[in-house]
Amino acid sequence: MEIAALVSGGVDSSVVVHLLKEAGYDPTIFYIRIGMEDKDGYIDCPSEEDIEMTTFIAKKYGCRMEIVSLHEEYWEKVVSYTIESVKRGLTPNPDMMCNRYIKFGCFEDKWGKDFDKIATGHYATTTEFNGKTWLSTAKDPVKDQTDFLAQITNLQISKLMFPIGHLMKDEVRVIAAEQKLPSAKRKDSQGICFLGKINYNDFIERYLGCHEGKIVELETGKVLGRHNGYWFHTIGQRKGLGLSGGPWFVIQKDIKKNIVYVSNGYDPETQYGKTINLQGFHFISEDIWGVFDDTKEVTFKIRHTPEFTHGYIRRTGDMYTILSDEKIQGIAPGQFAVVYDQDHHLCYGSGMII
After folding, report:
1. What is the model's pLDDT at position 199?
2. What is the C-alpha separation between 184 and 176, in angstroms, rounded?
3. Average pLDDT over residues 89-109
4. pLDDT tens per residue across span 203-245
5. Torsion of CA 156, 158, 163, 164, to 10 degrees
6. Lowest-pLDDT range, 66-70, 183-187, 338-342?
7. What's the predicted TM-score (pTM) here?
8. Catalytic machinery residues
9. Three-class SS string for the chain?
10. 125-134, 138-147, 191-200: lowest mean pLDDT where?
11. Each residue of 189-204: pLDDT tens digit?
C-alpha cells in the first residue's frame, strides 16, 4: 500500500511516521508549505525548524521526502475566506477550510492521487458503518480534532488514516521520547496557522484597517467606550474591550453602524441561546435525513472544546436548526456547528451558523 504522510515537524505527525514504519509501511513524507501572502512576499506558516525536524524524521526512518508548496491555493481558499468573513462581521473557521480545501483537497489533486492512503497527525479515527467510512472521535477527548475535520468529503475520509487517533496525547509523547524524536518535548502549535507569529489584530488591521465606532451597553443604550472596528471583535468575546467595571461580553454587532454591543456580568442572560440556525448542512458520509424525516437526537459543539451538548436537529427545506437542551454561550454567525450521534462517536458533518 502506498501511503503519503503529511508531516509538519511536530510531535504528532512525527509519531505517525514511526507507527507506520512499525506497521510495515514505507510512507512518503510530504511537508506542505502554506503561508500568508504579504506585500514583501510570503510569510511562512511553517518555519525552518519545522523543515529541519521533518527532514530528521525522513532520514531516521529512511523515507522519501518532498517539500511542496500550496501558498497560492492557501491564500485563495483560506486567507481570503477569513478576511471576507471577518469583514462581514462573521466568526470564521480557517482551520476547517484548510483541512477540506488544502490538506485534503489541493494536496490530493496535485500529489495524493498516486497514493492509496493519506496519513496525518490529527486526533481522530475512522469507523466502518453501513458500508461507508465515517469520521469518528479520538480516544483523547481534549485533543479530539473531528470538529476541524467536519467539512471534509466522503471521498476524502475514505482515503484518510489517523494513526494516533487511538492514543492519548501523553502516550504520543512517551513514544516520541522512547524513539528519541527531536519533537518529543516540543510545544503544540497554537492559533491560526497562516498567521505564523503575527498578532491576529495586526493581521486584521493590515487588510481591513481601522474604523472607530461605539461600544454600547445592550440593555441601556449607554455608550461605554470606543473600538477600532467591529471586525476586531467576535460574539462572546470578553478580553480586549478596554472597559472598566467588567466583565463585559460582546453580545451583538451592528455592521452598518459599526457598533459593538456588550453586556455586563459573568453570566449575562444575553450571552446565551438554545436555538442554533444553520445555513445548509454538509454531510460527510451519509445524509441522515434519508432515514430520519423530521427531528433527530444528536450531540454537537459550536467551538473547539472537549464537551458535547445534547440536543435535536431539525430540517425545514434547506434550513437546519439545532434545538439545544442547554443554554449555549456565544453563538456567533459564521461559526460551524459540528453534529455527532447520540454517543458523540460518529461525526455526521457540520453547518454554518447564521
Report:
1. 73
2. 5
3. 93
4. 889 899 999 999 999 999 999 999 999 999 999 998 889 999 9
5. 70
6. 183-187
7. 0.90
8. 98, 193
9. CCEEEECCCCHHHHHHHHHHHHCCCCCEEEEEECEEEECCEEEECCCHHHHHHHHHHHHHCCCCEEEEECHHHHHHHHHHHHHHHHHCCCCCCHHHHHHHHHHHHHHHHHCHHHCCEEECCCCCEEEEECCEEEEECCCCCCCCCHHHCCCCCHHHHCCEECCCCCCCHHHHHHHHHHCCCCCCCCCCCCCCHHHCCCCHHHHHHHHHCCCCEEEEECCCCCEEEEECCHHHCCCCCCCCCCCCCCCEEEEEEECCCCEEEEEECCCCHHHEEEEEEEEEEEECCCCHHHCCCCEEEEEEECCCCCCCEEEEEEEECCEEEEEEEEEEECCCCCCEEEEECCCCCEEEEEEEEC
10. 191-200
11. 655 555 555 677 888 8
Q: Give residue 46's identity as a one-letter amino acid code.
A: P
Burial of 68 per CB tally in 10 Å (0-12, 13-18, 19+): middle
Looking at per-residue pLDDT, the higher value among 37 and 48 belongs to: 48
Residue of 103, 177, 168, 113 lying closest to 140 (CA atoms): 168
> What distance in Å separates the CA atoms of residue 255 and residue 338, rounded to the nearest whole number?
26
Q: Which residues of 278-305 are buried (b: 16+ CB within 10 A; e: fewer)?
A: beebbbbbbebeeeeeeebebbbbbbee
Report which of 236, 203, 167, 235 is spatially closest to residue 16, judged by C-alpha positions. 167
Angle between helix 11-22 and 48-60 (nearest 10): 10
